[in-house]
Amino acid sequence: MSLCPASRTGGATAGASQRHWKLGKKRKMRVRLRGINSRRKRLADGSIRTYYWAWKGGPRLHGKPGTPEFVASYNAAVAQKVVPPTGVLLAMLLQFQESGEFLYGISERTRRDYLKQIKRIERAFGDFPIKALDDPKARAVFLEWRDELARRSLRQADYAYHTLARILSWALKRGLISTNPCAEGGKLYHGTRVDKIWSDQDVGRFLEIAPPHLRLAMMLAINTGQRQGDLLKLTWSAYDGQIIQVRQRKTGAYVPVPVSDELRSVLDATPRRSPVILVNTDGKPWSESGFQGAWRKVSARAEITGRTFHDLRGTAVVTLARAGCNEVEIYSITGHKPRDVQAILTTHYLPRDTEVAMNAIAKLNTYKQNRGDQNGDENLPTALPTALRLVKPKGEKA
Question: Could you write out the DSSP letters of every residue in 60-110?
Fold first, then answer.
């Protein structure tokens, strides 16, 4: 007797899938395996293998789908499944993962990152009593946990703590808890992007060495300032010859990006091998890991170190600023919020930028040349504004 897969209803969404199997050759019996979670992984030899779990966060299943071993493994996992206790942080973590904010309010990439941190939180505080969150000492407990994580990585420590604070904030809004001890915890990692901008020489060396499909990725990134994940999903139907309609997964917003002459000539000369613009050598859409691996190899061959694809987003902001664009104009292309663009320029990317300073001096020279032989400027203030006049203390003589 064997198990063969029957029709499956619904998608393969983790935690919500239903797989149906038919038992036997002549007499077939439908077996429903609810909630199975699957994930594909590329192995070292390049092959793809699919792994299965009884449910999201549950035990891994053994055997191949369609075999008695697989069904027996599933049944054993279900039989041992224990309902999580109430009144502890684990119950809240599970409840958050079923919420609309988690399922629909964030991007798929952010959701995957959250799951990694939630597992870390579960290992440390799964049995932490929810009532203990009201204890003033709870904040110190969570901060000490972050300090311990920071020994390995400051950024990961911040991310784990931020995720916990986000979940507790969600619970606070729903009235599940009365206080969030992780609120306003600050950050340990304070990175800078001052030295993480692709120079014109870096871009030139990359374009000289890269194959056509990666040169196209570079041109899209440097001319649009969009995120890697959004560009990998970009379809030809989003490009009308003048504008690219980019849907940003992180915000859900559609950003119409006018195409520069340089990028238009590249796009119009690119064969459309797939509905997706960026494809690999086989003409198939990239996986994120596959694209990152190929990008790193070309960067290494071009002797470009300390620069990532994500740095091109900031490089585009800097390039637009050097071209004289203001924050609103930059935002309209990259999709940043105006205040975020200003923060990038002033905090991370343009402090003491030589080219910007030269532009400022050029404007000053032009201004002085236009003034001619004028010895003064009628626009200069001749007296203090009323609001700024000094008031002498009473009794003091003039």
Answer: BP-S-TTSHHHHHHHHHHHHH--PPPSSBHHHHHHHHHTSHHHHTSS-HHH
* Sheet containing 29-34, strands listed edge to edge, beginning at the edge strand earlier in sequence: 3-5, 18-23, 29-34
What's the residue count for the chain? 398
Domain residue limits, the chain: 3-80, 89-173, 200-354
pLDDT one digit per residue (tens) for the chain, 398 residues? 334 444 333 333 333 344 444 444 444 455 567 778 888 888 878 888 898 888 877 888 888 887 888 888 888 887 777 666 789 999 999 999 999 999 888 878 889 899 999 999 999 999 999 999 999 999 999 999 999 999 999 999 999 999 999 999 999 999 999 999 999 999 998 876 556 889 899 999 999 999 999 999 999 999 999 999 999 999 999 999 999 999 887 777 788 999 999 999 999 999 999 999 999 999 999 998 999 999 999 999 999 998 999 999 888 988 888 888 888 888 888 877 777 777 767 765 555 556 667 777 888 888 888 876 555 555 544 444 444 444 444 554 54
Helix 154-173 and helix 138-150: axis angle, to 10°? 150
Quick one: residue 65, left, alpha or beta (phi over 0 = left, psi -120 to 50 = alpha)? beta
Helix pair 200-209, 212-224: axis angle to 10 deg: 150
Residue 387 DSSP code? G
CA end-to-end span of the chain: 110
Residue type at 244?
A: I
303: three-class secondary structure by DSSP: coil
**Cα–Cα nearest to 231, from 251, 217, 252:** 217
Provide the CATH topology of domain 200-354: hpI Integrase; Chain A (1.10.443)
Amino acid at 101: E
Q: Is 0.70 surpassed by the pTM of this model? A: no
E strand or H helix that includes residue 221: helix 212-224
